[in-house]
Amino acid sequence: MGYSLWLVPPTNSKIISSLISTIKSFNCSFAPHVTIVSKIPLSTSIDEIKASLTAYFNEHSLPEVHIKSLHTGSEFFKRIFLRCQRTDSLVSLARFSKQTFANNNENIDQWVEDYDPHISLIYAEEKDCDDQELISQIDRLALIEKTWQGGKIQLVDTSAKLSEWKTVLDFDIPNSTSS
């Protein structure tokens, strides 16, 4: 699969604590994140990615994340997840990242139109979990309608199996905030 670029909430925010405890309650160990883009070739220079992100954030506003609602899906990576609003700043970062790091001749406008920002709470196959039982354990008040700006960008090597994923770059976005 290559690298994936994740947007993680600010380290000192209340929302990251709530997300981490929810994800851990489902026996998962991934960092809470909004995937910005995936399928970045492993041959891409990490230093170039860092330099490109630095230049981007010098010119653009912080990505804003607004958690809107809780959902279930049939995909492994979207089994139970929080849907996020398609803010202009988040979509702009996704477009930039797709074009700069993972432009594999897809129609960029269609890709951006299909971009579905979300925060996965569990990775699982449908047959492996009872959605309603798991959903009943989620503290919606701690998660829904929460927001943050900025945070951290993580570049994660997602080319191996899930248990072997590793973060290869932590990039702190300057002036990040949460509420």
Tell me, what's the shape? globular
Order of helices and strands: EHEHEEHHEHHEEEE
Number of helical runs?
6
Count every beta strand, where a strand is a DSSP E run of 2 or more residues: 9
Q: Beta-strand percentage?
A: 25-35%
Low-confidence runs of at least 5 consecutive residues: none
Straight-line N-to-C gap: 33 Å
C-alpha-based Rg, rounded: 16 Å
Order the strands across the largest sheet as they lie in space.
Answer: 5-4-3-6-9
SS-based structural class? alpha+beta
Task: Kindly report the average pLDDT value.
Answer: 91
- Characterize the biggest β-sheet: 5 strands, antiparallel
Protein name: 2',3'-cyclic-nucleotide 3'-phosphodiesterase
InterPro entries: Cyclic-nucl_3Pdiesterase, Cyclic_Pdiesterase
Pfam family, one: CPDase
Organism: Adineta ricciae
Describe this structure in words.
This protein has 179 residues and is of the alpha+beta class. The chain has one domain (3-65, 85-120, 147-178). It contains six helices and nine strands. The protein has a five-stranded antiparallel β-sheet with strand order 5-4-3-6-9. It has a four-stranded antiparallel β-sheet with strand order 2-1-7-8. A hairpin with an 8-residue loop joins strand 7 (152-157) and strand 8. Helix 3 packs across helix 4. It is globular and about 45 Å long. The termini are far apart. The model has no long low-confidence stretch (mean pLDDT 91). GO terms for molecular function: 2',3'-cyclic-nucleotide 3'-phosphodiesterase activity. It holds the Pfam family CPDase. It comes from Adineta ricciae. This is 2',3'-cyclic-nucleotide 3'-phosphodiesterase. One of its GO terms (biological process) is cyclic nucleotide metabolic process.
